[in-house]
Amino acid sequence: MNTMTNLSELEKTLGITFTDKSLLQRALTHRSYLNENPEYPLSDNERLEFLGDAVLDFLTAKYLYNRFPEMAEGQLTSLRAALVKRETLAQFAVTLNLGQYLLLSRGEEEGGGRQREATLCAAFEALTGAILLDQGLQAAEDLTLKCIEPEIRRILEEELYKDAKSTLQELAQGRLQLTPIYRIVGERGPDHAKEFTVEVLIGEQVYGHGTGPSKQAAEQEAAKAALQRIRLLDINPNKLYNSCELH
After folding, report:
1. What is the mean pLDDT of residues 66-88?
2. Looking at the domain that runs over 4-156, which CATH code has it been given?
């Protein structure tokens, strides 16, 4: 499914027929593919990713501004961050099944590149940039809204836009007079694309793990996992302290 002649299914999913098919192909070309195929006539998707990132920021901000006219700037900023973060955009890519269309090197594919969050996020951003250039801003906005409207409901219901570390600290200090402690338990990837894994402890118990491109991002993900665990258990102070360690 990785040639220019086999993208009609993706176009059907998008509801878009590209005038310049090479733009769509570029959006799906990972830089690793060029390293392995130097004769390939197109560039990778990184420039389109740069463009799509800016477009998504703008379109998401516009959507939230119009959808929530009474909402304060700080909360709008938090909601936008939740909608355009790597995890969310990667999930949009999964929904569109972008992974199967990506052009990757053999090594990247064997290493799970088609499911890698960072790669899928970049592909979705690049696709948005390609749609903007080929079809215009309205088409890019149509795709963006189709993806974020269902997601915004979940974010609001689960309060995922709130700062997870602050919320967890308030909860732990209020119930137990304990401050969560974050500990790096893993690092992988080259210096320019590091991925950190962090665990968060309350007392001596591990309550969540998280990964991210920075220590701060990984800590936020670990805090979210801890909050979800606590909510699922409907924990009272005694249960919070005595509950099983999360592994």
Report:
1. 91
2. 1.10.1520.10
Q: Which residue has the higher pLDDT, 47 or 237?
A: 47
| pLDDT per position as a tens digit, 81-106 | 889 989 899 999 999 999 999 999 99
Mind listing the pLDDT tens digit for each residue in 185-215?
A: 999 988 777 899 999 999 989 999 999 999 9
CA distances from 166 to 78, 79, 172 (A): 13, 16, 10
Question: Which residues carry out catalysis?
Answer: 53, 125
Q: How far apart are CA 59 and CA 44, in angstroms?
A: 24
Which architecture, in CATH terms, is 164-242?
Answer: 2-Layer Sandwich (3.30)
For the record, the structure tokens of 161 come out as 């836009």
**In angstroms, rounded to a whole number, what is the distance separating the alpha carbons of residues 164 and 224?**
5
Domain ranges of the chain: 4-156, 164-242
Strands 205-212 and 195-202: antiparallel
Spatial separation of the C-alpha atoms in residues 127 and 144, rounded to whole Å: 11
